[in-house]
C-alpha cells in the first residue's frame, strides 16, 4: 500500500466511521476495488479505527473529563457514603457504557475468526449495506423522542453495536437508530453512541497490537500506517461534528439512499 492509498483509505474510514454508512464495509469495498489483499488489510483497518478513537476523545474531551472526575469521586469514602453512584448522571452514564460493552465483547471473543472472514467478501458487504440503508430509512418515522438513557436501553444499543461488527452494517447507524426507536433524545443518543464505542475500539486495538507483537511488522509499513491514522483522525473529527449537527435537524435517514446505491452497485460489480 502506498501513501496515496493510505491517505485515501484513512479519510474514507474517518468519514464513514461517524456517518452511518459502515466504515468497515467501505474499507472492504475500497480495498477490493484497489486490488489489495483484504486479509493483510485487517491491520491497517485497526490502525485507522484508532484514528477514529482519538477523534472521539478530542471531540468529547470535556464530557469524558467530567465523567472520569465524577466516577473517581463516587468511589471515594465520601462518595460511597452519599450514594453518588445512584444519583450522579455521569456515573450512571459510565455504568450504561459498561453494560453496552457486554454484547460486543461476547461476539468479538467467540466469533472473531468467522467475522474476519466476512471482511474477505465484498459481495456480502454490499448486501449488508442494503440492510443498513433500510434501517436508516426507518428512522424517518421516529418523531421527537424525549426519553432518557436507561440500563435496558443501553443494553439494546449494545446489542445493535454487536450486530454491527458485521462489515456493511453501520455501527453508528445501528446504535443511533435503535436508540431513537427506544425513545432516547437525539443529542443524548448521539453522545452515547459515540462514547460507547471507545472501550470496544480500545479492546480491538489491544488485540491487534498483541497479534503484531507475535508476527511483527515491516519498518516500511509503519509510515503508511501512521499516515492512515492521521488521515482518519482529522477527517473523523470533522465528520463527527457534522453528524451530531445533522441528527439534531432530523435528517438522519437521508443516508439510507446512499447505502442503497452503494450496496446495489457493489452487488452488481462483485456478483
What layout of secondary structure does this protein have?
Elements: H1 3-18, H2 23-33, H3 41-59, H4 61-74, H5 77-82, H6 84-87, H7 89-110, H8 112-118, H9 122-138, H10 151-163, H11 171-181, H12 186-195, H13 197-215, H14 219-248, H15 255-270
Can you offer a commentary on this structure?
The protein is an all-alpha fold and 271 residues long. The chain has one domain (3-270). It contains 15 helices and no strands. It has helices spanning 3-18, 23-33, 41-59, 61-74, 77-82, 84-87, 89-110, 112-118, 122-138, 151-163, 171-181, 186-195, 197-215, 219-248, 255-270. The radius of gyration is 19 Å and the shape is globular. The two termini are 26 Å apart. The mean pLDDT is 86.
What tags apply to this protein structure?
single chain, 15 helices, 271 residues, 0% strand, mainly alpha
Number of domains: 1
| Uncertain residue ranges | none
What share of the residues lie within helices? over 70%
User: DSSP helix count?
Assistant: 15
Q: For the residues shown, what is the average pLDDT?
A: 86
Q: Give the H and E element order.
A: HHHHHHHHHHHHHHH
Fraction of residues in β-strands: under 5%
Structural class call reads mainly alpha
Largest sheet, strands/sense/barrel: none
Bulk shape: globular
Please report the distance between the alpha carbons of the first and last residues: 26 Å
The total beta strand count reads 0
Radius of gyration: 19 Å
Could you give a quick summary of the protein structure above?
With 271 residues, the chain is mostly helical. Helix content is 79%, strand content 0%. Helix 1 packs across helix 3 (41-59).
Amino acid at each position: 500500500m502506498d501513501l496515496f492509498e493510505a491517505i485515501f483509505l484513512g479519510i474514507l474510514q474517518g468519514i464513514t466511521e461517524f456517518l452511518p454508512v459502515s466504515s468497515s464495509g467501505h474499507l472492504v469495498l475500497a480495498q477490493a476495488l484497489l486490488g489489495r489483499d483484504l486479509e493483510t488489510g485487517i491491520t491497517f483497518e485497526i490502525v485507522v479505527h484508532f484514528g477514529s478513537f482519538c477523534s472521539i476523545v478530542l471531540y468529547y474531551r470535556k464530557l469524558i473529563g467530567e465523567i472520569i472526575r465524577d466516577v473517581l469521586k463516587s468511589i471515594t469514602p465520601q462518595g460511597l457514603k452519599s450514594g453518588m453512584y445512584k444519583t450522579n448522571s455521569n456515573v450512571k452514564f459510565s455504568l450504561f457504557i459498561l453494560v453496552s460493552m457486554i454484547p460486543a465483547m461476547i461476539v468479538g471473543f467467540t466469533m472473531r475468526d468467522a467475522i474476519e472472514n466476512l471482511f474477505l467478501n465484498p459481495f456480502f458487504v454490499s448486501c449488508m449495506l442494503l440492510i443498513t440503508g433500510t434501517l436508516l430509512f426507518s428512522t424517518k418515522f421516529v418523531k421527537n423522542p424525549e426519553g432518557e438513557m436507561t440500563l435496558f436501553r443501553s443494553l439494546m444499543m449494545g446489542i445493535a453495536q454487536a450486530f454491527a461488527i458485521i462489515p456493511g452494517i453501520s455501527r453508528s447507524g445501528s446504535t443511533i437508530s435503535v436508540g431513537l426507536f427506544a425513545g432516547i433524545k437525539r443529542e443524548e443518543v448521539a453522545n452515547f453512541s459515540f462514547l460507547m464505542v471507545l472501550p470496544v475500539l480500545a479492546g480491538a486495538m489491544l488485540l491487534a497490537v498483541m497479534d503484531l507483537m507475535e508476527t511483527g511488522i515491516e519498518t516500511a509499513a509503519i509510515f503508511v500506517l501512521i499516515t492512515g491514522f492521521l488521515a482518519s483522525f482529522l477527517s473523523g473529527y470533522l465528520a463527527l461534528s457534522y453528524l451530531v449537527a445533522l441528527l439534531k435537524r432530523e435528517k438522519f435517514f437521508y443516508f439510507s439512499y446512499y447505502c442503497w446505491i452503494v450496496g446495489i452497485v457493489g452487488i452488481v460489480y462483485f456478483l
